[in-house]
Backbone:
């Protein structure tokens, strides 16, 4: 056997040896290997969104909306916006937006109960009643119109039937929004595109 053939056989043997693990790994092994490669590409826990948290002194997440926060038009509540507090804003936050939304309202598009924008980055809470009456909000904060057509908070007052869900969402933005007072929730939502650094939600239910 000449040296050329010996070299060819040697290289061929190495090539086959290098392929052997792949050929004998089986589907389970290949899946574990693929998962290992994918896990390397995932962001580290706590980076970016996910650190922002929201809570209320009036209800727990997944609880029931108290009568104090229930609407007064057609219902027997007091229509007082709840106290809300937050922490964990990402670096670069320049303002916040808060929305309250009922996805179960029989309108085909849900019902927006509260829209607050340009909450200053220095704020970490809204007082109880901040969206009701005289709008005792942090300086510079603006409110859009709820789907009842008025600015500020309007409490839950669903039709008789299964409880509705009321979702309070806080957005941390990298800018303030150049919008007029009384902007609609859809208009505010459109302007969140490309400006949201993180968001977080809590919810409560109410039914009659």
Residues:
């Amino acid at each position: 056997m000449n040296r050329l053939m010996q070299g060819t056989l040697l290289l061929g043997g190495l090539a086959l040896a290098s392929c052997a693990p792949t050929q004998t790994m089986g589907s389970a092994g290949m899946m574990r290997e693929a998962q290992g490669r994918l896990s390397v590409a995932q962001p580290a826990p706590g980076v970016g969104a996910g650190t922002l948290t929201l809570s209320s002194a009036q209800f727990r997440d997944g609880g029931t909306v108290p009568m104090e926060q229930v609407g007064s038009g057609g219902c027997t509540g007091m229509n007082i916006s709840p106290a809300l507090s937050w922490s964990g804003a990402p670096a670069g936050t320049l303002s916040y937006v808060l929305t309250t939304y009922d996805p179960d309202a029989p309108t085909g598009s849900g019902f927006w109960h509260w829209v607050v924008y340009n909450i200053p980055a220095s704020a970490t809470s809204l007082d109880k009643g901040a969206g009701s009456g005289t709008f005792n909000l942090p300086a510079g904060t603006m409110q859009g119109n709820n789907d009842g057509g008025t600015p500020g908070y309007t409490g839950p007052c669903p039709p008789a039937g299964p409880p509705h869900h009321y979702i309070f969402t806080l957005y941390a933005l990298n800018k303030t929004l150049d919008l007029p007072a009384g902007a609609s929730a859809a208009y505010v939502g459109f302007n969140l595109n490309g400006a949201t650094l993180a968001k977080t939600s809590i919810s409560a239910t109410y039914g009659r």
The first helix runs from residue 3 to 41. The helical segments are 3-41, 185-191. The two ends are 93 Å apart (CA to CA).
